[in-house]
TrEMBL record:
UniProt lineage: Bacteria, Pseudomonadati, Pseudomonadota, Betaproteobacteria, Nitrosomonadales
Molecular function via GO: 4 iron, 4 sulfur cluster binding; metal ion binding; quinolinate synthetase A activity
Subcellular localization(s) per the UniProt record: Cytoplasm
Protein name as catalogued: Quinolinate synthase
GO biological process: 'de novo' NAD+ biosynthetic process from L-aspartate
Catalysed reactions, as listed in the record: iminosuccinate + dihydroxyacetone phosphate = quinolinate + phosphate + 2 H2O + H(+)
Keyword Metal-binding appears in the UniProt entry: yes
Annotated metabolic or biological route of this protein: Cofactor biosynthesis; NAD(+) biosynthesis; quinolinate from iminoaspartate: step 1/1
The protein's Enzyme Commission number: 2.5.1.72
GO cellular component, one term: cytosol
Top-tier EC class: transferase
Needed co-factor(s): [4Fe-4S] cluster
Record InterPro entries: NadA, NadA_sf
């Protein structure tokens, strides 16, 4: 049962323009060789998200790093012996790596690579909201700042949210959830938990349109629809599978369908093609009333990561993620709680 309440102001987030790195073959090869040498010299491992460029994903794979969802990025960086973790993704992923590994150096290609969910949840306003609801367990999505994680009882990712909230609900707990209203709504409907929802959203997933998706389904009657739960409820309602990026790739591998309509960032197609060769992946539509593009399913912050900027941070040591120790010591508890839960379930 969702409770009515006075919501604090949720900042409107404007996405930056999309600027993707374009490289010629020679420059690409030179950069990759240079980065590999520097990584070996600096005992560094590259952890990349599925939404980053194919170049970065391939480099992570080729150098013994990982390409994954945000849950596995956190697990992998934590378990790895490297003394430097290079995080190709967005700021909250770098923060999580640093919180879990305060003794390691964590570098990111571009510190401006943020996330509309993180930006929509300022720590001071969020903390005041929590203070108004002391009877609720505070559960925050991983797409939040270190300070917001420090205020939370639990961190969850898209791959763990339903199970963790169902667990808390079974214990009779009421929940304060932030920041994604769509994921929160999906988790609430799936678990039946009593949840107060912060009103943030993902600029990428929010753009998927149910009416156009229904029409696309009619045109591709044998296609399975795979949807990330940051999407609006009417888009989720049309899904055959709702899940994290890793769960979406797994569904493409294991389902018998040949065609898939995919409602998440199109950076994921690189791994989907590799994981399920011969299958056909179609971008879910983002066109519709008010839409400014036909297929804008790509995160402008993820696109800030590139080989040039990765080489630059290795050469100079800039863009190191730092989290003050008081925040780190609190935030690590809520992240570790999730990792322990995920390991047990
Ligand atoms: P995943 O954990 O499913 O990869 O999601 C992270 C994210 O930012 C999706 O937009
Ligand atoms: Fe944030 Fe959305 Fe980009 Fe994921 S795709 S990092 S949720 S803005």
């Amino acid at each position: 049962m969702q409770t009515l309440f006075q919501m604090p102001h949720t900042p409107k987030v404007i996405a930056p323009p999309m600027v993707e790195e374009v490289l010629g073959a020679d420059e690409r090869a030179t950069l990759i060789a240079h980065i590999k040498t520097m990584m070996a010299q600096q005992n560094a491992v590259l952890v990349a998200h599925y939404y980053t460029s194919a170049d970065l994903q391939d480099l992570a794979d080729a150098t013994g790093g990982c390409v994954s969802d945000s849950l596995e990025m956190a697990r992998f960086g934590h378990a790895h012996a490297a003394s430097t973790i290079l995080v190709a993704g967005v700021k909250f992923m770098g923060d999580t790596a640093k919180i879990l590994n305060p003794e390691k150096r964590v570098l990111m290609p571009d510190l401006n690579a943020n996330c509309s969910l993180d930006l929509a949840c300022p720590a001071d306003e969020f903390s005041a909201f929590c203070d108004q609801h002391p009877d609720r367990v505070v559960v925050v999505y991983a797409n939040t700042s270190a300070a917001v994680k420090a205020r939370a009882d639990w961190v969850v990712t898209s791959g763990t949210a339903v199970k963790i909230v169902a667990h808390l609900h079974a214990l009779g707990q009421k929940i304060l959830w932030a920041p994604d209203k769509y994921l929160g709504d999906y988790v609430q409907r799936t678990t039946g938990a009593d949840m107060l929802l912060w009103q943030g959203s993902c600029v990428v997933h929010e753009a998927f349109k149910a009416k156009e998706l229904a029409a696309m389904k009619l045109a591709h009657p044998d296609a399975a629809v795979l949807v990330h739960p940051e999407s609006p409820a009417d888009v989720i309602a049309l899904a055959d599978v709702v899940g994290s990026t890793t769960q979406i790739i797994r569904a493409a591998q294991t389902m018998p369908n040949r065609e898939f309509i995919v409602a998440t960032d199109n950076g994921i197609f690189h791994k989907m093609h590799a994981a399920a060769p011969g299958k056909v992946f179609i971008e879910a539509p983002t066109a519709g009333v008010g839409a400014t593009c036909k297929s804008c399913a790509h995160c402008p912050w993820m696109a800030m990561n590139g080989l040039r900027s990765l080489a630059h941070v290795l050469e100079t040591g800039v863009n190191e993620i730092l989290v003050d120790s008081a925040t780190q010591q609190k935030a690590v508890l809520s992240i570790q709680r999730m990792l322990d839960f995920a390991a047990q379930h």
